[in-house]
Design a protein that fits this description.
The structure holds 2 protein chains of 2 kinds.
Chain A: H1 5-20, H2 25-51, E1 57-63, E2 66-71, H3 74-97, H4 104-123, H5 127-145, H6 151-182, H7 200-217, H8 226-229, H9 235-244, H10 246-262, H11 264-270, H12 272-292, H13 297-317, H14 321-352, H15 363-366, H16 368-381, H17 388-402, H18 406-431, H19 446-464, H20 472-480
Helix pairs in contact in A: 1-2, 1-4, 2-3, 3-4, 3-9, 3-14, 3-19, 4-5, 4-10, 5-6, 5-10, 6-7, 7-10, 9-14, 10-11, 10-13, 10-14, 12-13, 12-18, 13-14, 13-18, 14-16, 14-17, 14-19, 14-20, 16-18, 16-19, 17-18, 17-19
Chain B: H1 20-41, H2 44-63, H3 70-81, H4 84-88, H5 94-125, H6 130-136, H7 143-158, H8 166-172, H9 176-186, H10 188-197, H11 205-227, H12 232-256, H13 261-291, H14 294-312, H15 318-331, H16 336-365, H17 376-394, H18 401-406, H19 410-431, H20 434-440, H21 448-464, H22 473-514
Helix pairs in contact in B: 1-2, 1-9, 1-13, 1-17, 2-3, 2-9, 3-5, 5-6, 5-7, 5-8, 7-10, 8-9, 8-12, 9-13, 10-13, 11-12, 11-16, 12-13, 12-16, 13-14, 13-15, 13-17, 14-16, 16-19
Classes of the chains: A mainly alpha, B mainly alpha.
Chain lengths: ~500, ~525
Amino acid sequence: MTVWLPVLVPLVTGIATFALGEGRSKARAAVNLAGAALASGTVISLVVGAYSGTVRAGEVPLLPGLPLTMHGDLLGLLFSAVATVLWGVTLVYAIGYMDHARDRARFFGFFAWCIAAANGVALAADPLSLFLFYEILSLTTYPLVVHSGTPEALAAGRKYLYYALGGGAALLIGVAWLAAIAGPVRFTPGGALGALSGHETELRVIFGLLAGGFGVKAALVPLHGWLPGAMVAPAPVSSLLHAVAVVKAGVFGIIRLVNELYGPELATSLGVAQVLAVVAAVGIIFGSVVALRQDDLKRRLAYSTIAQLSYITLGTALCSPLAAAGALAHLAHHAVMKITMFFTAGSLAETLHVKTLSGLPGVARRMPITMTSFAVAAFALAGIPPLAGFASKWMLGAGAAEGGSVWALLVYVASGALALGYMVPILTASLREGNQPARTGTESDPRMLWPIVIVAILSVVFGVTAGMPGSPAHWAVTAIAPSFGGWTP
Amino acid sequence: MTPLLPAGVGRLGFALDEVAVPYLFLFALIWVVSGLYTLVTTERGTRAHVFAYYLPSALGGIAVATAADAVSFYLCFALMALPAWGLITSSGTPEARRAGAIYLTLTAIGEALLLAALVMLATEAGAIHLDALAAAFGAAQHRDLIALLLLASIGLKIGTLPASGILPLSYTYTSAGPAAALAGASVKVGALAMVRLLPAGIMPEAWAHTVMLLGLATAFVAAVLGVLTTTPRAVLGYSSASQMGLVLIAAGVSLAEPSAVVLAHGAIVAFSLHHGLSKAALVLGDDVVSRLSGRARTVALAALVVPALALTGAPFTSGFVAKYALKDAVHALHGPVPEAVYALLAWTAVGTAALMLRFLTLVVAQPQARRSSGPAPAVFWGVVLVTGALAVWLWPAEWNVHAAESILSISSIWTATWPVLVAVAGALALRAAPGLRSRMAASVVPGDILVGAAPLVKAADRAIGTRPAPASPDTRKRATGISRALTAAEGRVVAWMVAATVFVVLALVFVAIVTR
């Protein structure tokens, strides 16, 4: 039963939010925050159990012979914890950000359902269950992307839906085809398809379909088109898309696919992992270079996300244990770094109406705490020790070198330099002298200020504690080890 | 197996070994004294701004001497190099900002190369301690690639050809105190990396020869470029690049021949101490002179000749010791290339002497611009000056013994003196041709090809970019039009591509399923 709670709690929170209606904003805030706290509590209790070896599992019949299965393994729980804990932080921010917005019940309700779906993706124990939650996630995200209702937002939403449903279709075919040749399979560390032989070509095509389906949300180039467009959505939605749940569901799907469905060995011997690695490497360089040229702050961050997600995909596709662990750790590390940045972009837009690099001069003086937090996240993303991005980049790079893929290491360090290239201009522009409206009281709404500080501190803590039990990096190593036959670093 | 940041990045390793001690002495002295100099010479209003960058840079710059593992070394290196951007751009002028941008770009590339090398070495070693990395080098699978990455990273730091421009760029627009720290300490981290990280005595001879020749070429070319520039600071920048070329020769010596490693490392340390302190004294002295008038100015100018002579390696100066250590190291190698390098070493002193003459002429010609700010700047300068003159002689080490023994022999005094005389003669000859002189001067912009490359990069960016160029309204309109068309096209192409792919794939899959 416990394993269902991370899905059920946000689901019920969403229902309650809709039931409360538009007017009762205090009660809505209380219900949502309580829901986030409760969900985080259940995830943490599952994590404590999983660390000591008790993996909770559950299943309910869905169709004859097709049960919906869930299990709280460390791998899934890492994503689940990221989504659930950052849900709470984003709620505080969103309550401040959406203070005067309309349709807030709809916003918070769908937000909660997105988290329910993301937790479903995280904890699903078989490909079909994962597919179902993945589709629900697509559908529940759509109302958030189009929330403002402007023609621009509707266009972005349409684009998102086309991509998401296209990806979903590919995924469905892949899952069904796999079920046709392999029967019911569960995610198993090290791979669940070992017994299949003589189906090599079909397995390659199925891998392509599944990776393509997940690749849409993971913004694998050239399936990335929807992501820069979706930045018209409000800032809390951007952080949901980029950091908390949506794109992470895509890369998480790829992690499950490579490590626990095909398994590193089969993925390598079929040659599909190598193809995926090359695609991801192209995405890293493409995203980083395009990000260099964006004047719009959120667009710049969006292309950075494309590059960073490909970090995770590349690390997974290298099929070397340390790189795979680094990829999983980066899922959490990137989440806290990128959420800091989107929170900052939202604060600047909401407080000072600054949305572009050319509007930044004077911002650092006007909003010092916000910009300091942003700077921490920016340097973390560029991989400056001892921040979070360095820890994952070190693991990814060392894993690449260990697996003999020196080219991937060079891609990683090159993109680190490029990350400095697209992040530092934001900082230097904000440090220039410029005219910004004078401040009244705190530099921005405290409900928007403190979440930024908290996630920025997490970007430091995750890096400094990497290697200590319970830190995302250590957690990732523990979670990935079974896929490589109990490897320890 | 690779250690996974044991206990996180929290367990950074720092240690004091025999390499760390001289570098800690040098870095701490220069960062602290330059910091005090900055404190007394910066206006109250801008102090907070300058020190917001100076202090983190100083922390990294001092701690890097004792960094004992790959992560702490990389951390300190980044902590020192990145905030220096704020020191370079603190004047806020367009030139300073351009210099800052070029500096930051090259630093980011250098950091990336260093990180790649460190990660690969740590993977080979299964540990991150620097000793373990050095030990793993010999058997490393990608030994040549790692060595190349390290040399490129160090080269970017110390201004090896073709990147010599990075040093004059980073000195020219920086105020005196921070510039002294960059010149005296920051650049020397490249020398520290040579001792700590480069493979010692295990590379093929061709590597040693190539690196030595590259160092020699840098020593000469940077000297020529420097003589052609027009500000004292730019001359000093090229002089640093030239001197670090000599240090690179020592690094080249250490690469291949195991028996020469100790001598070569000694020469690198000697050069770091000598050049770091002398260069900081020259940067500060230029500023002190400009604050003085009358007799005090004359005295200061006379004192400024001491570090200038030291750079040329004149007898009784710190440079004499450093040159001796370098010559001993090169002499330990045999063959045509080392012997040619050995023979040409003396001639590099001619270039240095010419640079120093150019520097002193420019300082003398500089009008007294700023008002005096009491005796404090001169006192701090004096500390660096005196330490620089004495430290290299008194340091308890092997590398100054030979110099101390030979200082009273006529032949070694002559060897150290004639290059200065040649340069003076050349300068006097050039005096007779004022037209030629004025044409030559100012033919080099600080940063040379790096500054030349910047507009190319911008143009390329504009050609493909989506950011409108801040040019004339006409070009702006055109650029926006093109970029808009490109953006729209990208969106459409991607959307159609995905839609088409999905349909084709779906069709194929259904055909496949139906015909099963």
